[in-house]
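ok trying again, last paste got cut off:
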Amino acid sequence: MAAYETFASVYDAIMDDSLYEKWTDFSLRHFPKDKKKLLELACGTGIQSICFQQAGFEVTGLDLSQEMLDLAQKRSREAGLDIPFIQGNMLDLSGIGPFDLVTCYSDSICYMADEVEVGDVFQQVYDCLNEDGIFIFDVHSTYQIDEVFPGYSYHENAEDFAMVWDSYADEAPHSVVHELTFFVQEEDGRFTRFDEVHEERTYEILTYDILLEQAGFRNVKVYADFEDREPTETSARWFFVAEK
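nice, full thing came through this time. structure:
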């Protein structure tokens, strides 16, 4: 998984802010009312963690990238909030917890190398949840990975940075490669080029169901595109709500 070194500095500029409200609304509909201690996996620059904290939850954020977490810490302090942010890998949650709720949004599960790692994440989450705890995550659908992303191209231009984002089908089933090129302005006015490669992979819904069941989860429900409805053949994003 890429460490998002350069991505951290421009991530918020290219992220659709409206998604955070959608993730928050979906979560609030599916969180039990009496549970408050929440772990946000792949918390990035902390915007979603702040949304959850402001909604009344006791939030801990975890991310692989210290650069992302530095921004998250700064943002939370500016918002007058005290949110612990932990640098760590969701493949090893042994040192933290327990929690009532765990979320993993922005298709972060899709960055796992294979279904063995996905299953390992599910087991780690299960083990750090309290009994009757809830795990919610989203992933790209197979339709999004197979039909939408290949050939996708996105360009962003701002005064202090520019970005080119191109996506290609990868070799493994339901996998894609995102090639990102950044031009970031330095203090002397010159632009420096950075290149990153992000690889994502998804699986059939049945595969996720089996891996969740193997980890011990029950009452798994699947929804699509931030709404409380079943996925269709052209749904872009699947949401899983699982109970310990």
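cool. The two ends are 28 Å apart (CA to CA). The mean pLDDT is 92.
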